[in-house]
């Protein structure tokens, strides 16, 4: 049976950890799903796969194209798709149109939006009222890279209080879960204990209700993985070696 948003909330209540990873193509999505990943995010970290330096250039059409491929490989996991930069910030109607396209064209069960300021909370509220499941995202929000950089957020008491209040406001607006990115573990614990919905951490310590990483970081394919990402294998090295061996055989190199 396919995992639902309500199951994630139940798992928080039961103390069952949620396993999440990213995917952008059919092959990886199929492997993650078969391995038992609970939530698969088609993240705008797709930018890395497409060779961009930041997530900002990724378009809605690119997200939809890749999400369709991921959907074909996923049978069990909950599938969530990021709305990319400037496809939901301009107005509620723009957000409704973008989120509606994602759900209609890809078969995903939910969308993810960054930020918890009042305007974003209002947008989330309207999307949820329209029947569109929304995942929130606070702390380090990569779409705000030119404003926030890539440094840890919420380190001061004032900044921590702001992020906590954003998470509470998003829960009240109806998100089914919230990603907490690159914030102090104590702040993540505080938010996790305060909310009834599950928190999914990335660089936010071990006390969240679940964890997510970018799959290319986990597999050692990224050139520059973030400091909080654990590399479980080095496919970059293995693939390079395999291709070198193939090239040697093709060329008949006897050395």
What amount of the residues lies in strands?
5-15%
How would you sum up the major sheet? Answer: 8 strands, parallel, barrel
Distance between the termini: 53 Å
Q: Report the principal-axis shape.
A: globular
Q: In words, what does this structure look like?
A:
With about 260 residues, the protein is an alpha/beta fold. Helices cover about 45% and strands about 15% of the residues. An eight-stranded parallel β-barrel has the order 1-2-3-4-5-6-7-8, surrounded by seven helices. The longest helix has 17 residues, at about 155-175. The relative contact order is 0.12. The mean pLDDT is about 95.
Defining key terms:
255 residues; eight-stranded parallel beta barrel
Strand and helix map with partners:
Blueprint: H1 5-14, E1 18-22, H2 26-34, E2 39-42, H3 46-49, H4 60-73, E3 78-82, H5 92-106, E4 110-112, H6 118-129, E5 134-139, H7 145-148, H8 157-173, E6 177-181, H9 185-194, E7 199-202, E8 210-213, H10 215-218, H11 235-251
Parallel strand pairs: 1-2, 1-8, 2-3, 3-4, 4-5, 5-6, 6-7, 7-8
């Amino acid at each position: 049976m396919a995992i639902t948003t309500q199951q994630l909330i139940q798992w928080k209540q039961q103390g069952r950890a949620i396993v999440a990873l990213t995917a952008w193509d059919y092959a990886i999505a199929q492997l993650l799903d078969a391995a038992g990943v609970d939530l698969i995010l088609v993240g705008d970290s797709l930018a890395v796969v497409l060779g961009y330096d930041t997530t900002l250039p990724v378009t809605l059409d690119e997200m939809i194209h890749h999400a369709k491929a991921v959907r074909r490989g996923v049978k069990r996991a909950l599938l969530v798709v990021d709305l990319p930069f400037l496809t939901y910030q301009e107005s509620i109607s723009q957000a409704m149109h973008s989120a509606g396209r994602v759900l209609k064209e890809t078969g995903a069960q939910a969308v993810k939006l960054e930020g918890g300021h009042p305007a974003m909370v209002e947008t989330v509220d309207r999307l949820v009222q329209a029947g569109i499941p929304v995942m929130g995202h606070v702390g380090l929000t990569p779409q705000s890279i030119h404003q926030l950089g890539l440094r840890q957020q919420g380190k001061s008491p004032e900044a921590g209080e702001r992020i906590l209040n954003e998470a509470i406001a998003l829960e009240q607006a109806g998100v089914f879960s919230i990603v907490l990115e690159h914030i102090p573990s104590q702040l993540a614990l505080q938010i996790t204990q305060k909310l009834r919905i599950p928190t999914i951490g990335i660089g936010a310590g071990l006390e969240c209700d679940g964890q997510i990483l970018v799959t290319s970081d986990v597999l050692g394919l990224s050139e520059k993985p973030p400091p909080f990402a654990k590399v479980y294998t080095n496919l970059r090295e293995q693939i390079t070696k395999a291709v070198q061996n193939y090239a040697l055989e093709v060329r008949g190199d006897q050395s």
